[in-house]
Specification:
alpha/beta; 6-stranded mixed beta sheet
């Protein structure tokens, strides 16, 4: 096993141990901490050996044709094997047979639309137990074993439709609804969203509802019957992709064009024409191409070993198309557009602040493994000592090469602000790693949430010192933003403990020899110090060596940052009581994957802060950590 490849089960045990002792960190903004394996391992299969299956509820239909187009374009782009298949009329039992056929083939993942989630519950569980992950699309099944959902957030879409109807009817609507089948969960959710909005408008009322089994001829009959049974109806609404054709045809047959308000769902060619002609007032348009592409991307991410990054609801959004914008609306431009370049033609650059260093070696390994897996061209370069001006030269060299994206660690964000903007203006996206620059033009950040990491360290020190700590801090450079954030997190926790105090702080310029000198000087200047904490990846070596030279092993509490081999040995020997360990391999891997996602049109999925988490390693778990 490579040193970067860790078993997920072992990491979950370690994380649970850490949680019981001192708490855990997780995704920024999450209500509950999200636990991650410490390092990614490359999938057992190459991209070309992966096979995914889409068990569609319907084929040979405009909406599902668009889904299939997005799915197949994504499969071709990533170079994986895919199949898209389903019945020609909606029949859940037939759809389940296609799902079962995929399971029998032992595919690497399945996407489907669970129109009635209860009917898919058992088979989703069976697939999961076979090691075949499931992604839901268009209809969600949140109580099932599915990992992710891609599609419209149907209740929110229903609200958007209702608000459109309020505007069209001036708040006075007697509404008939044409749905598909009355037990389809996605359609129920859309209706629930409509009713929530109508509750605030007393003159908006649903007076009739019919299902057409997703058949246009049946839909025409149902619309006709609703108007005949409810002459007060002044509005008709369709909730699935065949309804524009059915409603438009029925209104023309009934002579009601222009006399009632009418909306349909999704952008079939006939629906677009009906909007242009004034037969329909609006279409609520999903993004089926985007759904197909992104559901494949979800399965691929799961296959890489990171289901957490796609788990839950992934809303692909909605558009309202009316006569005001129908001429400029282009369904191929509204969803995701396939990238202009193939993966093999993509080039990415990592402008590292440091090379030939244990932490950055692990980052580089993750970066290069991701690049190799996806078959993109990548470079990892930087100075051998931390020098921001030299680092910026590497960044500028990447810009001069007109690469497709750059990752860097903006140790001092202010010094990177202008360069990040220049890169962005050139069309070269930037991802920050390890240190964030949230006020810059960077698209995303991958790394520890440094404030939370500082809090985790502080809680560790509170435990180790029995709430009575006089602490010295060994940092890198005093203006590094990530180190400032770690210190801020420590101070926030120490504010709750009157006998926890930072009494000294020194920077070592990320040099071990300088670090040894600084630790020695702090203990000499502050004899009351009973604890030393290192805040970057060279500090385990410096703190450990200094304590041994000073004869302070076992007499003071010592912690350091990241898992250099020397640091692990120092924990085993009792020289250091704990290491706060980041996940550098994962940082490198995911920063590469983020750039690939941006190039693929997924900027919206990676924008913002992505906390790769922390782990506390001490004598209770160091042996497991090394395995």
């Amino acid at each position: 096993m490579r040193k970067h490849e860790k078993h997920l089960s072992m990491w979950m045990v370690l994380l649970l141990i850490a949680a019981m002792l001192i708490g855990t960190t997780g995704i920024v903004g999450a209500a509950e901490p999200v636990e991650y394996p410490a390092n990614l391992s490359r999938p057992d299969k190459a991209l070309s050996d992966l096979t995914f299956y889409f068990a569609s509820p319907l084929v040979a239909n405009p909406f599902w044709d668009e889904v299939q187009s997005g799915w197949e374009d994504a499969c071709a782009y990533y170079g994986v094997n895919c199949e898209f298949i389903g019945p020609t009329v909606v029949d859940i039992n037939e759809q389940l047979k296609y799902f079962e056929a995929a399971m029998a083939q032992g595919v690497d993942g399945i996407v489907t639309d669970p129109l009635n989630p209860a009917q898919f519950q058992t088979i989703f569980q069976q697939a999961t137990e076979m090691g075949i992950p499931v992604v839901a699309m268009d209809s969600d099944a949140p109580e099932s074993a599915r990992i992710a959902y891609y599609g419209s957030e149907n209740k929110a879409a229903g609200k958007l439709l209702a608000e459109t109807l309020v505007t069209l009817t001036d708040g006075n609507g007697k509404i008939g609804i044409l749905t598909g089948v009355l037990d389809a969960e996605n359609l129920h959710e859309r209706i629930a969203g409509m009713e929530e909005v109508f509750a605030n408008h007393p003159d908006m009322e649903i007076v009739a509802m019919e299902g057409d089994d997703y058949l246009i001829d049946v839909g025409i009959q149902k619309v006709t019957a609703m108007f005949q049974a409810h002459p007060e109806m002044n509005t008709i609404v369709g909730l699935h992709s065949q309804t524009p054709q059915a409603i438009g045809a029925a209104l023309k047959e009934l002579g009601l064009v222009g006399k009632v308000k009418a909306t349909g769902w999704d952008a079939s060619p006939e629906g677009i024409d009906y909007v242009k002609e004034g037969v329909l007032d609006a279409l609520l348009v999903q993004r089926p191409y985007d759904m197909g592409w992104r559901s494949l991307y979800g399965l691929l991410t799961i296959a890489e070993g990171y289901p957490e990054y796609v788990a839950g609801v992934n809303d692909t959004g909605m558009s309202v198309v009316t006569r005001d914008n129908v001429d400029t609306y282009d369904q191929k431009n509204d969803p995701l557009a396939r990238p202009g370049k193939q993966l093999a033609d993509m080039s990415y650059y990592f402008a590292s602040p440091l090379v030939a260093n244990p932490f950055w070696d692990d980052v580089q390994a993750g970066w290069e493994d991701a690049c190799a897996f996806y078959g993109v061209n990548c470079e990892f370069a930087g100075p051998t000592v931390v020098d921001i001006n030299e680092q910026l030269k590497y960044f500028e060299a990447a810009m001069a090469q007109n690469v497709d994206g750059i990752v860097t660690d903006p140790l001092n964000p202010a010094q990177f602000q202008t360069t990040f903007q220049q890169s962005t203006d050139m069309g070269i996206p930037v991802v920050a790693m390890d240190s964030d620059a949230p006020d810059s033009a960077r698209v995303a950040y991958y790394g520890s949430d440094n404030t939370n990491a500082g809090k985790l360290l502080a809680r560790t020190l509170v435990k180790l010192t029995a709430e009575k700590g006089k602490i010295g801090i060994l940092t890198g450079v005093l203006d590094a933003e990530n180190l400032h954030e770690r210190i801020n997190g420590m101070e926030e926790v120490f504010a709750e403990y009157p006998e926890m105090e930072i009494v000294a702080m020194e920077g070592d310029d990320y040099l071990i020899d300088v670090g040894i000198q600084k630790v020695t000087a702090m203990f000499q200047a502050h004899p009351e110090m009973n604890s030393i904490a290192g805040l970057h990846s060279q500090t385990p070596q410096a703190v450990g060596a200094a304590l041994k030279e000073l004869g302070l092993v076992g007499k003071v509490t010592a912690t350091a940052w990241d898992a250099a081999p020397e640091g692990i040995d120092y924990v085993k020997e009792g020289v250091l009581q704990a290491l706060l360990t980041q996940k550098p391999y994962a940082m490198g891997y995911w920063s590469a994957k983020a750039l690939i996602a941006i190039s693929s049109g997924f900027k919206q999925d990676v924008v913002g802060v992505h906390d790769t988490g922390m782990l506390v390693v001490d004598q209770s778990n160091v042996a497991q950590f090394e395995e």
